[in-house]
Amino acid sequence: MLDRLYLAVDLGGTRVRAALGNEHGQILRRQEVRTERDYAGAARGHWPEGSEGEHIARQVGDLIEQVAGYRLAEARAIGVAAPGPLDARTGILYHPVNLTKDDLPLKDLLEERFGKPVAVHNDANAAALGEWRYGGHGPTEHLWYLTVSTGVGSGIISHGRLIDGFNTTAGEIGHTVIDLNGPECACGNRGCVEAICSGTAIARAARAALQTGQPSSMLQLAGQVDRVTAETVVQAARQGDELAQSIFFHAADTLGAAVVNAIHMISPEIVVIGGGVTNAGELLYGPVRERVRTKTMALCGQGVRIMAPRLGEDSGLAGAIVLAMRQSEA
Amino acid sequence: MLDRLYLAVDLGGTRVRAALGNEHGQILRRQEVRTERDYAGAARGHWPEGSEGEHIARQVGDLIEQVAGYRLAEARAIGVAAPGPLDARTGILYHPVNLTKDDLPLKDLLEERFGKPVAVHNDANAAALGEWRYGGHGPTEHLWYLTVSTGVGSGIISHGRLIDGFNTTAGEIGHTVIDLNGPECACGNRGCVEAICSGTAIARAARAALQTGQPSSMLQLAGQVDRVTAETVVQAARQGDELAQSIFFHAADTLGAAVVNAIHMISPEIVVIGGGVTNAGELLYGPVRERVRTKTMALCGQGVRIMAPRLGEDSGLAGAIVLAMRQSEA
User: N or C: which end of chain B has fewer CB within 10 A?
Assistant: First the structure.
C-alpha cells in the first residue's frame, strides 16, 4: 500500500522549514529557507506587494510547492507549526513578536492556495505532538514539552491528547509569574519564566551585569557588550567565568522551579526540554534535574523522567505532520 | 424508573459529610459529624484501638451506614473526596497534613467493609467534577476549580474530562512557586501560592505584622495576637483597618497572579473560586478579577469567566457522586 502523504511546515522567525512526510511521521523530503518579511516570490519577478504577513504566507506556500514537487496533488493535508499567539481554531497568527507585526490568517491563505485542509498550531504544541507520537517515548499518555530559546513555551499532552484548552492557548508557561518582583516581561507581567530563563533574558542579564563593570571574559568573547548572547554566556561559563556561571545558573535554576511548578500543576510522566538554550547541555539540565529532585512533592514526582527531545530540531515538523493527519481526518 | 443510588463522602480535617445521591447529582439525604482521630465507633462501646487512620476510616464507614440507612444495599458505589496528597489509583492517602499523620488505604478499607466499588480522589479534583457536572455552567469542556481555605488547591477539567495526569496529582497550584524569594512553604519550596494566599498564610502574615507592633484593630477583634485568623483580617479590613487591608490585598492580588498563571497554562473557560477564604467576597474576588483583566494575554483571556461555586459547600459531595458513578461503570 502506498504511503499517505502530508505536508508539514515549521515556521520560525529566522527560518522556514517544510517537509513531505507520511503517516508514520517519516520525513521523505525536506527544504529550508531564511524567513523573509519582504518576500516577492522568486518566480514572480516583481517587487514586493502586500503586507509583511502576506509575504510570509507566500514564502511558506512556495516552499510547500517546492518540497512537494510532483506529489503535491497526492498530499492530503498541510500542518503548520507557527509562533504564537495564534488561534488554532481559525489559524490566525496574532502579530507574533518574532515574526511579524501583522495578524496573519495563515490557515485561510494556505487553504485558498492549495485547496487542501490546513491545520495551524503553535510551535510548542506541535513539538509536543511530534515528540509524543514519533519520539519513541513508549506508550505514555502524559508528555510535557518545554522549549527554551528566544522565548519559553510548552505543549501539554495529557490523558493521551493535546491539551490546548478553551482558547487553544494552553501551555504558555513562559508567561507564568514565578518571581513577583522579578524583571518586567513583554507581556505586561513581572517575573515571568520567559523574562528570566529565555535566551533573550540570559543575554540581557549578562549585558546588564557587564554594564555595571563587573569583570568577565564575556566581553572578550563577544567583542562588545551589546554583542553578548546566551551562547556567549554559556561559552564563558564553560571556561570557568564566574559571572557567566552565576547568570546562567540563575536562569537554569529558575527554569527548574518552573518545571516543578508544571509537574505539580499537570503531572506529566515525561518532561522533554528542547530549544536553542538546551545546547548548554548539563549546564541547563543539571540545575533543572536538581530542583526537580529536591523540590517536587513525593507523589507528584514519582516516575517522572526529564530528557532532551529525541527528534531534536524535527519535533516541530513531526508535530506538523500529526496536525495535518488530524485535519485530514476531521 | 427508580433512581440509581450512590454514596458520597466529603472528608475534611474538621468535619466529615456524607450523602446519599442519585445519578442526577441530587442529594437525597445528608449527614455530618466532626472528624475524630480517636473515634471508637459509638455502637461498639470500647476504647479506641488501631491507628489514627483506621479511626478515621471507621468513622467514615459508620457515617456512610447512617446516611444510607435501609438503602445501603441499593447503592451502587461509594465516592470519597479527601485531602491530598493521595493516589487516586490506589485510594491511599499519604499522611494528609490536615487530617492524620498516617498513610490511610481508604479505598481498600471501605471496599472491604461494604463490598462495593469505591473511588477516592482529592477534594479539589472532586469539587471540580461536581461543579462541572452539576453546577449549571452549561456545556463547557473547560472548567478550573480553585479552592482557597486552610490550603490552596485546584482541579482541572479540560476537553471534557478531569485532568489529573500521570500520578493523579495534577492541579496542585498551591505548591507552584510564584515568588522565588517569598515565604517558606511546608512543601520545601519558597513562595508557593499556598504560602501567600491560604487562610493560614494570611493569618500568619497578620500575626507577624502585629508582633512588630504595627497599630491595628485586629488585636482588639481577636483579643490576642495568636488568636488572629484570616477571618479577623477580613473583618478588620472591612472596618477600614489599613494594615488588615494591605495584608489581605497582597494575598488576593497574588492569588490573582496565580489565576493568570493558570489561565496561561491550561486555558480554562470558567474559573470557579471556592473555599473558606472566599467568604471575604469582593475583598478577594475584586483584586483577582483586576489582575486577570489587566495581566492576562489577550487571546488567552478571551471569554474567560470567573465566579463563585454554584454548589457552594456541596461541590465536593457532588463530585464524590460523580466519582462513585464513574467507579460503578468502570
Answer: N
Residue B300 is which amino acid? C
Amino acid occupying residue B60: V
CA–CA distance, B191 with A35 (Å, rounded to integer): 41
CA distance A167 to chain B (A): 6
Q: Extract the C-alpha cell encoding B162.
A: 478531569
pLDDT number for residue B37: 84
Query: Cα(A247)–Cα(B150) distance, rounded to whole angstroms?
Result: 37
- A58 contact B CB<8A: no
In the block, cell 485535519 appears at A327
- Integer Rg of chain B from CA: 20
Cα B199 from chain centroid (whole Å): 12
Taking a contact as any Cβ pair under 8 Å apart, which residues of chain A between 155 and 194 contact chain B?
A: 156, 158-159, 161, 163-173, 175-182, 187-189, 191
Residue A104 has pLDDT above 60, yes or no: yes
**Distance from B145 to chain A by nearest Cα, in Å?**
13
Chain Cα centroid distance, residue B183: 22
Cell numbers linked to B58: 471507621
CA distance B13 to A3: 59
Encode A116-148: b = buried (16+ Cβ within 10 Å), e = exposed: bbbbbbbbbbbbbbbbbbbbebeeeebbbbbbb
- The pLDDT value given to residue B43: 43
**Grid coordinates of A80:** 503548520
Domains of chain A: 5-128+313-329 (3.30.420.40), 138-309 (3.30.420.40)
Cα distance between residue B86 and residue B91, in whole Å = 7
Q: What is the pLDDT of residue B72?
A: 97
- Sheet containing B5-11: give its strands across: B27-34, B15-22, B5-11, B78-82, B118-122
* C-beta separation of B251 from B202 below 8 A: yes
